[in-house]
From TrEMBL:
Keyword Nucleotide-binding found: no
Residue ranges, annotated region (Disordered): 1-30
Top-level taxon: Bacteria
Domain SAM-dependent MTase RsmB/NOP-type: 202-502
Encoding gene, per UniProt annotation: rsmB
Species annotation: Dermatophilus congolensis
Protein name: Ribosomal RNA small subunit methyltransferase B
Amino acid sequence: MRYGGRARVNDASRRSAQRPSQRSRHGDKARSVAFQAMRAIDEGAYANLDLPARLRRATLHRQDYAFVTELVYGTTRMRGFYDAVISVAGSRRVEEVDADVLAALRLGVHQILDMRVPVHAAVDETVALVRGEVGVGASKFANAMLRRVSERSREQWCERVVEGVADEAERLAVLYSHPAWVVRALRAALIAHGSVSGVDTGDEAGGREAIQQALVELLEADNAGAKVALVARPGLADVQELVEAGGKPLPLSAYSVVLDGGDPGRIAAVRSGRAAVQDPGSVLLPPALVGVPVDPVAGGGERWLDMCAGPGGKAGLLAALSIGYPGDVAVFANEVSEHRAELVEQAVSAAQDAGAEVFVGVGDGCSLGVEEPGGFDRVLVDAPCTGLGALRRRPEARWRRAPRDVAELAQLQGQLLDSAIAATRAGGVVAYVTCSPHPVETVDVVQGALGRNAHVSVLDAQQWVRGADGEQIQGLGAAPYVQLWPHVHGTDAMFLALLRVGDVAG
């Protein structure tokens, strides 16, 4: 039989504040729910979809909800570091450990190293979990492993697991629990987007140090998680309504608030679709597209297209923006997946009820340029991407992507952008958006499209991305593009390029 093992920290300041130091007597049920969620994630489930459903079905005390959420999200984020600890503590590769045992050990190590759970409780409850889920023999193995791990502090384990690791990316990958290729990609992105000050001063050593510091801050931000942010869809709700419901305004966006906790579904505006859960970085981008001047055409009115609309956050915001827009607007939301198209329909329904003209369709965005050439004034391409900019919000994503995904997605992104350009009339505007900062998915895709479409020019996107005070947001990287960052702006790492489509004949 295959087994496995885990780690520990004494510094309370490094532990999660999600729980007090004493666990409730219902902890075994809470840990069981967390274990089942972890196994589901191992099999391909998404934490943000699977865990809430499990919590709704579970008969837990309310105070245990936060504990389970932190246990699942924190363990998933720090899995790489914990696996390194397990491997050293058990003198074996984690691949040799039974999958169920490994999942339980990861949960146990997270409690020992990074949560305010007494060591004896973390060990005893995890051993009991393994005994119930796997068997007595496995529980003895788990007990030995966790006690071995608890003999060292987190800081001591950090030193131990990178002994002999010379490559800096590999060291950071272990310590900050990201795949090494992701660490290298994020470093390249910080440089490519001009997001590190002092790099071009001629001080080579200082530049390397600045890049290293920014990279560490970014990795730490990925592991810190993200608070729930809400958008008040303009024309349907306002920020004050969300503030009165417990939200805190954000200086970054005139439409956004953040919640300290609780279920956003308790807020009436969210239940009615007048507000929604949406990252403030994502909220900034549709208004930028809508704000760019477009010369009117004969007959008046505008047609807006969200080419890759699922699950509907940006489509819902575009639909809301169309309500107060000067002139008639028809919004078209396209989604290749029927299921996700249904989510889009839900997202735009409140705007439709308020009079917005919104149409949701199912189709391949790559073919829209051929099917409706020059048919739209404004086109948003929120392209499928690796999601490397949303790792704090989607903890399992870092473990599911591979370097080969970047090239495959970049090809699709280029096809979608070409289609968007073809679907945009002369004088119209295209917004190319990703939630990945990877240069291959961002600037390279845009430059490739410009090379294939000589009638297209790049606009300065930075002047159209403005905060709640109406002023241009700082720290957006190298113009003409916009690159947001978790460690700088407190948002997902959203990328934006704005393109003006000219006359093909011209």
